[in-house]
Design goal:
This protein is of the alpha/beta class. 33% of the residues lie in helices and 23% in strands. The protein has 18 helices and 22 strands. Helix 1 runs parallel beside helix 12, helix 5 crosses helix 7 and helix 14 packs across helix 15. The longest helix has 19 residues. It is elongated.
Length: 497
């Protein structure tokens, strides 16, 4: 079950060559053009089905609007704040990242910065280079409390490594259950309970409206005096002005930032020049091993989605995950939706009955709208596209696990999966067995009676179902010539794919 077209991919940021090599092994043409200006990207993006970026390329709404053939955007890394995900979803474009590719590198860099803060190594190095021999006491990690905000893959690895220093590890995540945290040696606490007890804080969350300035003036005031803070996640999670004030007052003893609200930050920034700040230039994922992993993984994930094998890494496609778990039912839903299209007027209420109501109704609607020429409708965009086209629908649970029943107006169709093939088995009260494959031309049955011999010579098969006929063409052009003489025009020409 192929879900996306993937013939040609653009790589617009610097990435390891294993990415292009992996695409080539999977039969995908690659164009490698890092460092383009936005205007050039907008000009050439219509040529491509896929786009690979790291953090430099900004995939904004106007880039997406120009990407008329784009099916998938891949971030070779974790953070996707440089991609307009709502705009991509509206356009039916999959957004994908590589959740695990840089986990070890980012976690190790976090641990390195925690250790560096204990002795403020950056300052001691600079002082020694300037001839100063300052043997200033630092602190030990043993017995200290580390608070981890965000217990995804990176947060979990940090917890495991820092526990080896005999730190008490506490953490919070809005998704990860407390039981899972406990199994990984993390004491689960609410944020307000973490602030007063933590000697160290590290954040491992995406930059979202809900996480922007998560560490702010109010939070810093609630923190334990002398707390040390690390951010190797995304600039903007920490309010840099509030952090500077807390460093100046001594409420924050030291901070280590690998990411900034503006990158690169101004070299004369008061925060960057602060003696108790350790700063690195967004190095969290910058190891040779991580760059090879994310480059290879993003290409493999693209190919796996194309082939209908996996949706791993998809950020905005929960319905695709559900469809991949039942590929033949997903195929049937789309084809039955296409078969219903000739009978559905703009004012029709579409009814869908299935044992699976998670993705089947959406797949039916996508098939129906595709058959009507609305190519942007798919399992990602269907909600927005349905609303934009004033499509009304209702969902009923029931029937056979291998069947889907749909209706519009006075026409009711039932489709069934038999092996790997999908069939139309009932139209209203008439039983039939029409394979939903190839090209199907739908006409009124009484309109072709007089030319039936001529049609039969040009068709693979003619199926009658009540007052309608479904014609599978041998040669579509010849069939269309024969049908031109019908007293009423055909209802639809469907390509069942």
């Amino acid at each position: 079950m192929g879900l996306i077209t993937l013939n040609k991919v653009l790589i617009s940021d610097k990435i390891d060559g294993v990415c292009a090599k992996t695409f080539a092994e999977n039969g995908v043409e690659v164009v490698y053009k890092p460092g383009m200006k936005k205007e050039e990207l907008i000009k050439i993006i219509p040529e491509f089905n896929g786009l690979i970026v790291r953090s430099s390329t900004k995939v904004t709404a106007d880039v997406i609007a120009a990407a008329t053939n784009l099916k998938i955007i891949g971030r070779a890394g974790t953070g996707v704040d440089n991609i307009d995900i709502p705009a991509a979803s509206d356009a039916g474009i999959v957004v994908m990242n590589t959740p695990g590719g840089n986990t070890l590198s980012a976690a190790e860099h976090t641990c390195a910065l925690i250790l560096a803060m204990c002795r403020n190594l950056a300052n001691r190095h600079t002082e020694l280079m300037n001839g100063q021999w300052n043997r200033i006491n630092g602190i030990e990690l043993n017995g200290k409390v580390l608070g981890i905000i965000g217990l995804g893959q990176i947060g979990m690895v940090v917890a495991k490594r820092m526990a080896a220093f005999r730190m008490r590890v506490v953490g919070y995540d809005p998704i990860t259950p407390a039981e899972v945290a406990a199994k990984n040696g993390i004491e689960f606490l609410q944020l307000e309970d973490m602030w007063p007890i933590c000697d160290f804080l590290t954040v491992h969350v995406p930059l979202l409206p809900s996480t922007r300035h998560l560490i702010n003036e109010k939070v810093l005031a609630a923190c334990k005096k002398g707390v040390r803070i690390v951010n190797c996640a995304r600039g903007g999670i920490i309010d840099e002005e509030a952090l500077l004030d807390s460093l100046n007052s001594g409420d924050v003893a030291c901070a280590a930032l690998d990411v900034f609200e503006q990158e690169p930050p101004s070299c004369d920034s008061a925060l960057l020049q602060h003696p108790n700040l350790i700063a690195t230039p967004h190095l969290g994922a910058s190891t040779g091993e991580a760059q090879v992993r994310v480059a290879k993984e993003i290409a493999e994930q693209f190919a796996a989605l194309r082939d209908g094998k996996s949706s791993y890494g998809c950020i905005n496609a929960p319905l695709i995950r559900a469809a991949l778990s039942q590929p033949t039912l997903a195929k049937l839903a789309r084809l039955v939706g296409m078969a219903l299209a000739p009978f559905a007027s703009n004012s029709s209420v579409i009814s869908v009955q299935s044992t699976d109501t998670a993705f089947v109704p959406s797949a039916v609607l996508a098939g129906l709208l595709n058959a009507k020429g609305i190519t942007s409708a798919n399992l990602i965009s269907i909600k927005q596209v349905a609303v934009a086209n004033n499509v009304s629908f209702e969902v009923k649970e029931g029937g056979s696990a291998s069947e889907i029943t749909v209706s519009a107006g006075d026409v009711k169709l039932t489709g069934r999966v038999d092996g790997e093939t999908c069939y139309l088995v009932k139209l209203n009260n008439t039983s039939t067995f029409i394979p939903l494959t190839g090209s199907l031309t739908v006409v009124k049955a009484d309109a072709i009676v007089s030319i039936l011999p001529d049609i039969a010579n040009r068709a693979c098969a003619v199926f009658f179902a009540g007052q309608y006929a479904f014609i599978q063409a041998r040669e579509q052009e010849e069939l269309e010539k024969a049908i031109e003489s019908c007293p009423t025009p055909c209802l639809a020409k469907l390509v069942m794919a």
